[in-house]
Amino acid sequence: MPAAPVAPILPVVELVVPVVPILPVDPVVPVVPVEPTELPVDPAVPVLPELPVVLGKAPAVPVVLLGPVAVPVVPTVPVAL
Range of 74's domain? Predict the structure, then answer.
């Protein structure tokens, strides 16, 4: 019986992969090391990459709904923190 649920989970993972790169925004990550002089900014910046990571896991369930709802989901994550 567990084999059945595993099949649908595999395709869901593929959809999550393309969604993850869009949230983390590669250009934002390199900008963090560029400003090492601002210590208070460093801790604040790492929080941003953590948020997209959470979203990547959340869409695993409702990937289709998260497409348009991705915007409202962003403010919901910080609230949970």
Answer: 37-81
pLDDT at site 41: 44
- Tell me the C-alpha distance between 77 and 15, whole Å: 20
Question: Do residues 78 and 51 make contact, with C-beta atoms less than 8 angstroms apart?
Answer: yes
Average pLDDT over residues 5-25: 47
Does residue 79 sit within a domain? yes
Residue 78 resides in a domain:
yes
Q: Is there a contact between 59 and 14 (Cβ–Cβ < 8 Å)? A: no
Of the candidates 25, 10, 24, the residue with the CA atom closest to the CA atom of residue 60? 10
Q: Is the pTM of this model over 0.70?
A: no
